[in-house]
Amino acid sequence: MPPTHVKILVPGSHDMVSLLGQRDELLKIVEAAFDASIFVRGNEITISGEPAEAERVAHLFGEFLALLEGGQVLTRESVGHSVDMIRSGEELSPKEVFSDAVLIVRGRAIRPKTAGQKKYVDAIRKNTIMFGIGPAGTGKTYLAMALAVQALQSKSVSRIILTRPAVEAGEKLGFLPGTLYEKIDPYVKPLYDALYEMVDAEQIARLMERGTIEVAPLAYMRGRTLNDSFIVLDEAQNTTPEQMKMFLTRLGFGSKVVVTGDITQLDLPQGQMSGLNVVREILTDIEGLAFVYLSSRDVVRHRIVADIVDAYRRFDGAKE
Fold first, then answer.
1. Alpha-carbon gap, residue 222 to 278, rounded angstroms
2. How far apart are CA 267 and CA 236, in angstroms?
3. Are 52 and 87 in contact (CB under 8 A)?
4. pTM (global) more than 0.90
5. What mean pLDDT do residues 159-173 have?
6. What distance separates the 2 farthest-apart alpha carbons in the chain?
7. What is the rounded distance in angstroms from the CA atom of residue 162 to the CA atom of residue 166?
8. What is the rounded CA–CA span in Å between residue 140 and residue 34?
9. Is 20 helix (H, G, I), strand (E, B) or coil?
C-alpha cells in the first residue's frame, strides 16, 4: 500500500517553536514514537507513512494545536504523555486530560498529567468513597489533596482531614517522647509537604488552629463521625482490616473519602493482612464507591521512576 501524505497547516497565530520545541526537541519525541516521516516547511507539516500511523500523528498535532490555543505550554513531559495516550488508543484525548485545572495555586494550575490521573480525578468527583491504588509517583495523594483544597475553597465541605497509619510505632504514640505533634510529625510530614504547596503557610496555621484542616494518624479517627468533610487516608496499604473498617465507618453526611495506597509497598509485620487488599474483595458493586488503578504509565516523577516500578513488577511476578 502506498504511503499516505497528510498535510497540516499551522495557523499564523501559533509560534512553530512553541509547537516543535527549541531545536525541534518536541518534534524529535514524536518522530521517535511513530513509524512515520514528518517534514516541516514554514508553517506546513507533512506526515508520510502507513495510513493509520499517519492519521495518528496528524491527530496528535491537532491535539497540540488545541492545547496551545487554550493557552497551555507544551513540554517534553506533556508531549511524552500525549504520545502515550494516542499510541495506546485511550478514550480520553490529551486536550481533555491537560485542560482539567483541578486547583489554581499562585497562578499555577494543578492538572492531571496522564489519562489514568484524569480518570482518577473524575472518579473522586463522582463518588462518595474512592480508592486510588498505584505505585509511587502517580500523583494519588497530591491530586486528592488538590481536590480537597478546591472543595474547601468552594465551600463544598467545611473541613479537610488528612490521615495516615503510623505503622512503625504500632500506633502506640504515647510511648514516644515529646508533645503530641512532635510524636505524630514523622508520620504525617509528607501530607504537610503537599499541603504547603497548595496553601500559604500562614493560612494553614490559621485553618489548623480552627480545626478546618486536621492532619493526624489514623488512630485518632476512632470513635468519631466525620460530617461535611473531605477525608484523605494515605498509605492505606499499611492499615489492618480492622483499621480500614473503623476508618470507612467514620463517614458522615456531606463527606467524601479518598483512600490511596500502593499494594506493592507493605510495611506491616510479616503475615499481617493489609486492609487495602481486603476491601478490594469485600467492597464490590456498591453505588458511590469506586476503585481506580494507576500504573507505571501514570508516574509523573523522573522517567527512571517508571522504569524502576516496571522492573520491580516483573521481579515480583517472576517470584510468584
1. 19
2. 11
3. no
4. no
5. 71
6. 75
7. 13
8. 30
9. helix
Tens-digit pLDDT profile for residues 101-149? 999 998 889 999 999 999 999 999 999 999 999 998 899 999 999 999 9
Give the separation between CA 8 and CA 65, rounded to whole angstroms.
10
Residues across the chain: 320
Strand, coil or helix: 104: strand
Contact 208, 124 (CB under 8 A): no
Which helix (H) or strand (E) segment holds residue 160: the answer is strand 159-164
Q: pLDDT digit string (tens) for 178-227?
A: 555 565 666 677 788 889 999 998 999 999 999 999 988 888 899 999 99
Helix (H, G, I), strand (E, B) or coil at 68: helix
Q: What angle do CA 27, 29, 30 make, to 5 degrees?
A: 65
Q: For 41-68, how does the pLDDT look when each residue is reduced to its tens digit (9 = 90+)?
A: 999 999 999 999 999 999 999 999 999 9
* Residue whose C-alpha cell reads 513531559 in the numeric block: 77
* DSSP code of residue 122: H
Q: Evaluate whether 309 touches 299 at the Cβ level (below 8 Å).
A: yes
Q: How confident is the model at residue 301 (pLDDT cuts 50, 70, 90)?
A: low
- Residue 131's DSSP bridge partners are 259, 291
Query: What is the amino acid identity at position 122?
Result: D
* HEC secondary structure over 201-252: HHHHHHHHHHCCEEEEEHHHHCCCCECCEEEEECCHHHCCHHHHHHHHCCEC
Contact 163, 221 (CB under 8 A): yes
